[in-house]
Amino acid sequence: MIHIDIETRSTVDISAGVHEYAEAAEILILCWAVDDMPVQTWTINDCTPIPKLPPPYAAHNSQFERILLHRCAGWDNDVTQWDCTATRARQHNLPASLAECAKALNLPYQKDRKGAALIKRFSVPPFEDTKSNDFAAFVAYCVRDVEVERAISKALKPMQERDVWYLDQRINDRGIKIDTALVEALAQIDADHRARLMEELTAITKLDNPNSPAQLRKWLSEHGLDLPDMTKATIASAHATGAVGRVIEIRKQLSQSASKKLPSMGTPSARGILQYWGAGNTGRWSGRKIQPQNFPRGSLKVTDSLIDTAMTGDLDWLISLYGDDVQGLIGSLLRACIVGDFAVADYSAIEARVLAWLAGEEWALDEFRGEGKIYEATAAQMYRVPKDRVTSEQRQNGKGATLGAGFGGGAGAVQAFGIGREISAKVVSDWRAANKNIVRYWSDVETAAHNAIRRRGKAQDAGRISYRADDFGLWCKLPSGRRIAYPGAKLNDGNIDSCNRRIWKGVLIENAVQAIARDILADALLKCDAAGLNVVLHVHDEIVLDGGGYDELVKIMSSPPEWADGLPLSAKGYCAKRYRK
User: Nearest-CA neighbor of 298 among 320, 317, 325, 266?
Assistant: First the structure.
């Protein structure tokens, strides 16, 4: 194994993404070590070509090294030649940064903290001359990074599910297409709207800088509205009338963030937007750059007419037709900026299905195998009435309980899903009475995890999952064979403590269910790829293909993996030229 680190410079800021950064980049330093051999170096001052080293390679955040060395030195862009210690750190539920991972592992090699200042001098415009005396310190910094990465590699277990990670890297390299004309039109609308709001705010308050929280808070106080601060949450909950009410309304509109995604959508192709194993406790993906996982829902249904109107960039025309919630309009149209020949499908109630399957809640599984009306069926179980006699109020209670009570949540949890405070405790009680196997399974999981910690090295089963503790911490083995980690887990006053976080049975079961749902998605992604389907995006429990293939996609997603025999799955979606929710 060749452990590698590089230092680079580019006129494109790294925040734009590694693919964009690489287009204007230059490698300044290449450091490498073969297995345990001393670190070797090449620098731009050597006046020789960058050496081509034979695979396999290892790096921390290896996507960066892979893409830069391919772009700048002609190395193969084959992800299967690489290992990534940042990815392995994520799989251990450890910090992904080199410095924080080494610190968490208490390694003898630690990252040189002086590197940030050197990067600013040599890697960020205006670039300092590499003939500078301090360039040697930059080389030494790169050497140390190789030593730290190698130490991390030795301390961590091998990478899990390499095939999934390889596919993830290819999907990120592939990217999604962006309608930049629509993005530019929305950016113009946003700029015009914000300028108009600021002009009105200045006219009302007569402040030199009404965008200053301190000045505006003082003005509000002088006009009878005392606020503890000017945070978004405080402004959202503030109420007033007259001029003060209008100032609050303008501030609310200015604080909305839908348009903040537009700058990251300014290129024809958005790449590197998915973060593999972004959630440490489950391994679920998270987002980067445009972060499609947290697109706002928006306030309007997206139609061709709305898109055509937005494309004009005419703020007044847009408001006259669709109202003055401009940020809501922009939020509605963000997804429509992603274009292609899309086939999209989403799993139906995947977490509820997995929970019932784990716990053996047969009435719920039977419902999923049949009509799939789990909210009505849950209400029927809770209120002991036929499913076709369930009232709308009972269905709402069944829905709120299904969404809020499955992971041990109490009254507060179901209130978050629309259940009234006065009936929330009763709804939880009724749901638990109707789902005795699930309630029993919570305790089975907790007992298995606790016993694993007490009897280190011995697996403790909880139905389809199991727990085992070692010197690193507690591991939960999922039906897929993948493991999720709780570093440093120990028992403390009847609960598990992992990195100063309390892990109770509700967390254990939630992590297991969400991790299994994630593994089902990963299995479908692999099958789509094997079938020649072009996966360009996946968001939560949804898969997006470009180039058609809807029927095959639904068939794949509705068929459980071999390790999930008996789990009823269902998926449906749409075909469109623009992405939507």
Answer: 325
Furthest-apart CA atoms within the chain: distance in Å: 82
Residue 467 lies in a domain: no
Cα-based angle 158, 163, 169 (whole degrees, multiple of 5) = 100
d(CA 138, CA 427): 62
Percent of the chain exceeding pLDDT 70 equals 100
Residue 357 domain-assigned? no
No. of helices (H) and no. of strands (E), the chain: 23, 20
In this structure, the answer to whether residues 120 and 238 fall within a common structural domain is no
CA angle 60, 63, 67 (to 5 degrees): 130
Q: Which of 127, 159, 191 is the last residue of a domain?
A: 159
* Residue 95 shares a structural domain with residue 244: no
524 shares a domain with 403: no
Closest CA to 550 of 364, 386, 342: 342
Residues paired with 485 in a beta bridge: 475
Q: Is the pLDDT of residue 299 over 80?
A: no
Would you state the structure tokens that stand for residue 577, as one six-digit string? 């030229």
Q: Which amino acid is at 434?
A: A
Q: Are residues 31 and 126 in the same domain?
A: yes
Q: Within this chain, do residues 108 and 21 fall inside the same structural domain, yes or no?
A: yes
Q: Distance (Å, rounded) from C-alpha 406 to C-alpha 425?
A: 14
State mean pLDDT over 477-499. 95
Structure tokens belonging to residue 549: 């293939």
What does the pLDDT read at residue 287? 93
pLDDT digits (tens, 9 = 90+) for 314-332: 999 999 999 988 988 999 9
Q: Which domain holds residue 312?
A: 180-340
Give yes or no for a contact between 327 and 186, defined as CB atoms under 8 angstroms apart.
Answer: no
Whether the ω angle into residue 292 lies within 30 degrees of 0, i.e. cis, is no
More confident site: 325 or 282: 282
Is a pLDDT exceeding 90 seen at residue 33? yes
Instruction: Please check whether residues 154 and 188 belong to one and the same domain.
Output: no
pLDDT tens-digit readout, 99-152: 999 999 999 999 999 999 999 999 999 999 999 999 999 999 999 999 999 999
CA distances from 572 to 214, 296, 297, 337, 564 (A): 50, 22, 19, 22, 20
Structure tokens at 379: 């209400």
Domains contained in the chain, number: 4
Cis peptide before 210 (omega within 30 of 0): no
Sole residue written with tokens 């921390």? 60
3-state secondary structure of 555: helix
Task: Classify residue 500: in a domain, yes or no.
Answer: no
**In a domain? residue 256:** yes
**208 and 310 share one domain:** yes
Please state, in angstroms and rounded to a whole number, the distance separating the CA atoms of residues 432 and 547. Answer: 45
